[in-house]
Amino acid sequence: MAGIRNIFSFLKDYNGLLNPVITEIDRQIWSYKLLDAPQIEELWSIYYIQDLKELKILEIERPELRPCPPPNKIIKEWIQKEWQKLDVESIDYKEKIIRESIDENGETIEIEEYFIDDEYRVDNFKNWIRKREEWRIEELPKREGLNLYNNLFKLYSDIKKESESVELMLGDGHIKWATEGVFVNHPVLLQKVNLKFNPGKPSFVITIEHDELKTELYTPMLRIIPSINQSMLPNIIQEAENIWHIADKENNIEFFKRLINVVDQNGKYVKDLNSVHNGPMIVHDPVVFLRKRTLGYSIFIDSIIEDIDKNGDRDFPQFFRNMVAEYGGQEDREPKDNDNDEKDWNHNGIDENILLTLPANNEQLKIMKYLDNYGAVLVQGPPGTGKTHTIANLIGHLLSEGKNVLVTSQTEKALTVLKEKVYEDLQNLCISLLSTSSQQKEMDATLFEIDEKTTTIDLDDSLIRIHGFEKERKNLIEKYKEKCQELTRVRNLDYKDIVFANETVTPIEAAKFINKGKGKYDYIPGESNDDTASIPLSGEELSELYESNGLLTSSEEKLLDSNLPDLQDIWDAGLFAMKVKEFLNCKAITKNWEHKIKINDDIDKESILILKEEGENIRGNLKDLDGFQLYIMAKGITDSVYVELWGETFEDYDALESRYAEYKKTRFRNDYHIPEELVNADTLLILDEIINTNKEVPVNKLASLIRPKWKRLQNSITNNSKSIETIEEYRNVRLIIDYELDKDKLIKQVKRLLGDFSKEADFESQDAETKLRNFMQKVQTALNWYGDRWTYYISKIKEYVTDSDKIDDLCFIDMDKPVESIDFVFENILIKELEYNYYFIQLRELRGELNSYKDFMKKFKAKGEPLEGFVDSIEEGNTEKYGDYHERIVHLYNKKDIHSNRIRLLGKLGNIAPDWANAIKNREGIHGNNIVSKDVESAWKWNQLNNQINRINSYDPNAIQREINRINEMLMRNARQLAYEKAWYYKIKNTTDEQTQAIKGWRQTMKQAGKRTGKNAPRLLKKARELMPCCQTAIPVWIMPLNRVPENFDPQRNKFDVVIIDEASQADLLTLSALYLGEKIIIVGDDEQVSPNPVGIKTHEMNALIEQHLQGIPLDHLYNEKTSIYDMAQSSGFRPLMLTEHFRCLPEIIEFSNNLSYNGKIKPLRDASRVSVKPAVIPYRVAGGYKSGEINRVEAEHIASLVCACIQNDEYKRKTIGVISLVGQEQAYEIDKLLQLKLDPSEYENRRIQCGNPAQFQGDERDIVFLSLVEGPREDGGPVRLVSESGRNDMYRRRYNVAASRAQDQMWVVYSLNPEIDLKPEDIRLRLIKHALNPSDSERKKQLNRAESDFEREVINRLQNKGYKVYSQWKIGSYRIDMVVEDRDKRIAIECDGDRWHTLDNLADDMKRQAILERLGWRFVRIRGSQFYRDPEETMEWVFNELDSYEIKPNYTDIYETANESGAEKCELLEEIKRQAEQIRIEWQDVSDDDEHGATDNEQTEKYEVSGDGQIVINDNCVKEEIEKEKADDRGQTNHVPIFNFAKNKSPEKSGSSGRKYTKPINRKENIGVGPGPLFDFRKK
After folding, report:
1. Taking Cα atoms as reference points, which of 1527, 1096, 1150 lies closest to residue 1302?
2. Which of 370, 562, 676, 1001 is the most buried (most CB within 10 A)?
């Protein structure tokens, strides 16, 4: 492919000519040295405050300048010069003033008054001079800041117009050297920065974006320095990339020292470039500058050439092969139409294999088919024809095919919303690298999605879904085709007999019956599902059905039809009332309760109730205790020894109790009488002696003698009235006495323990043991009460509460009064808290029940009454209302049987006659009656026969169309689902391990880089950049302007399946380098719009390059700066597919461009019904406007005032606004300057204000557009210089085409000419003005409508588009001529042969008619139909030549009778805008006049006052005018300080103001046209 290599070799040298390396900073578009920035409080600079954590470089808020302190009235007349001006340094006074006076004789005399004669005046002057000098010292730096702010505003506005062509850079390391023909005076260390506007402050910020934090060397400049050390240059480049922050002065200076020695061994770092040194010098001198984005093409093209050398056998697209004369055959280059079989049914771009995920037409479908067949497609996209939409649709399909796509354009405007247009589920597979987007965010979002989908999507499952969607799509297309064919098929039905109720009826009989029954039997509506069937219901059933109309209201039926709640789920009135009452009771009880004890959430109220009742029982038990028990309990709580003593007592008691049974039995079985005095311990000793003898009768005579005590004892104790004798009796007596003694001892012990309560221990009665037992049990109860009852209960409560420690605090016992404490805790804490908690939980449960019930019933509220009122009663808690509505609901539910039977009958009827059933259901007309009509059977017959007749004779195309639309929607949904599945299937399937690793590595690296402000950031960012090429290959779709393609891709590594070039008519030959990346290419553009127009390349230089590189290349002479890539594609043999559906402008707006450039082929589809601003096209003539240079200042002022007026008007709320100058750029800059001055910055930004030329608007649009014709009338009164359509290679036509097609809602054509006098008939400006005067072109359309055939209409349309005055169906007596063309006093007749009237049958009459008319002086031009339809363009060119031969010329002047300004549509809104604009200009002029003539002494006195402390203060009523005057006087340029904020959109009438607060005044003398000109004009570089 040597020829292709030669083309790229040519491009390499062509790029060198077009974009030479700039080595002098003054040759950059714009520059500003940051060290020159004034040090004022409104300005922050990183070079003044070394805060390297900041990525902000500079920020400046708009400085506000103060007026000069006014002199006192006594010295003002003595002051010379213009003391108000800041530039005036010294002020002198007049030495003397000669005054006139009247002497005593009444004569006028002159008196000389010297300034120094009045010491007070001299002192006053000195004081004022001192204050003025202080004012100057403070204000001069602020004015510098204001100048910087204004320049940044202009820079910001200009960058927005050309954002894709320029980049703002921060440079440092300024090298200065002149050697061997190379002069270097430019910074070498560079960093991309952004200029941001904050309209709220307002302020401008120059900042580094996180994803652009990368310093670089200006290597193209370094490489052309002869003495540079090339071997060390790579190392210094590497070191530059690792610089942390370009503003790190200390470290960077060390780098500069090393760098300058690489440049030249005699290089030196200096502090000032004015230093004396023979070698190169480098200095720290940071500068912000604007440059063209062209630096990457050289390396990019070198890489392409190297790739061609390595891969010479690559199969290039046919586009490239045609360029080097390697044609693939005519059939490969000519567009083919293989879709004839689809013309009858496919109008929406439907295809089984091509998936268009957005609404489409067949033009888009053809593009994809041509791409598949030929590998390259040329698409002509006139303005507003949906190029972006088309490309987005193509992207969706290409993604579904697993393709990699690059979409690029010369300008960003065409790409701004492209990604948003792509079907939303596919957007994450696209990256849009624009100046308005963050590359890191775009990359991170897309790589994250790819990374996530790689792990979550199963390819086998995805493939199954794909096959399912493909099968569904095939079936849908078949159904769609069938329905379309059904819609277009003409049915011819033979006469057939009609069958009704199994009887035959002839069509005539049926027709007669139908005719007779009109108005009588035609009350059954609609068609039946079987128009041969007899009536589906019996007479009885029909009666029941109609009767149900009265038994059941429509609202009741509607309710019963719906999903109603079960009646069992609806509470009865009593239950609801009970619930509400309980709820209110609980709410009242707990209203002021503050939690002391918080119960655990999992405890139910029943458990709390049980616990509460248990506490009440325990407290009751405490209350039931006897006094001695309470005494014992209290002592037991406070005295542990007391408890121990009781323990011992109980041990004794237990021992006694264990002997009680034996004691009791002994007493019961015997009748012992023991004297009380013998019951003692001595008796026990005697008894022990007797018992120890072990004798049966121990006390015998002997013993009685020896032991007299024994005998006395024996005689004293009896049993059954006898003295005891046996040893057993002695033992029993001992048992009794021992027991009695122990019992007495125990009782005494108990009494001692009872203290004051000892009297309670009374056991003297016969049942002493029982009393003792009971008593001891009470004691036991008292002793155990604290542990068994209190401690147990407290521990149980602790199990229920959230904070057990709090219980201990609450239940603290006063040891002085333990019983009272316990009782208090029970009564006032535990029981109450449990009770409150019980009610609190019950309240919560009741609230939950009521809310659940309410939420359940609210689902049925929308069903209307009575459910609506029923739910309202629930929400209100109104039990009485609830009861009423409940009765109504029960009444409704009682009708369910009637409803069910009605549903059954309606269903039965609806199976055959659904419309009749619906009519009864909806109670329509007669079908809402309660009684069925008597002639219902005849009516049914009439309906059935009528349906059959209708079915035979016609069908409803609308119903078929609705079905087609439904299927079409399903096809769109299917296309999106299928495209999504296929796109991700191919993406994951084709993702390599290397790509996966790179993606994960890049994401982790960027994560570690964080905010990129640390010193490790450059190293991490470098690693990320190293991973980027591999990551890029994983991202299928890239969207970026052409100048970013070389920055982001390596031609040897990055290849795309498809490259799409948008706005190709603006793209020059360097675009071929982007096309090289594609296997297939789509070129979208329009040769009727602006093409490249670079300036600066000399013809002989281009010819030399062509001679050197392009020998043998076809059409080599077209390889120049004027040829666009679109032109190249056309010249290579590709005929464009044209997009014709227009969506942007209202029809009246696009009509001009449609006729001017596209022969009326564009089909406007925009609906104007919702556009509030009218009319769509407005002619606006400016009186007194003249062009000076390239500026018409009066016209500019009118446009600026109109923009301000529109912004004030509510109808223009949120409308975006553009202004296009049709002559150069200076007029646009003039208008932009006024708007920057007058508008609130927020409005300027939000309205997307842009003022520019047509080229700067190409690919862009605004809601409202003002066109400025600029040209004014000549002073001598003659016509101005002609601007013809074909002038300068059709440049004017292209510019006007672009300009007139940018407005979406409204286009203003503003001109200062008298079109009837100042413009020649063939001037394109006249055509534009006439279109604005009569955009609807009613006369033109009338002539078209008169035409009697399509042939005639096409010819008329082409003649009118060419500018001829045409009259259709011209009548001469009894004859008519197809059309007549008129020019002044000349006319020519045109006849269209071969269509309708001009056929073989009437040829003789036609020839006779012509002969008669020719004899009367008429001349004829006849157009043969066969000739015309074979080649319309060639035929019409012949017609135009014929007309020219008869001296018939196109004539735009006053084409039709009513074409004048009064014919333009007038409306109240338009007049209001004009009035407001005029008032605004009056305000500007008034204040401007004040500024020019100056204020009077009185006015000055009113404006300034001296306060009590001697300070000058300004009168608030005059401050704004004075500030503006001073600023205008001081600067002689614009100041962006709006007096008014239009955000409120209030007109003076509405606001009630005096009408003097519209905008800031213009100083016409100082401001208009005197300020700085354009900062840059790219087409002049």
Report:
1. 1150
2. 370
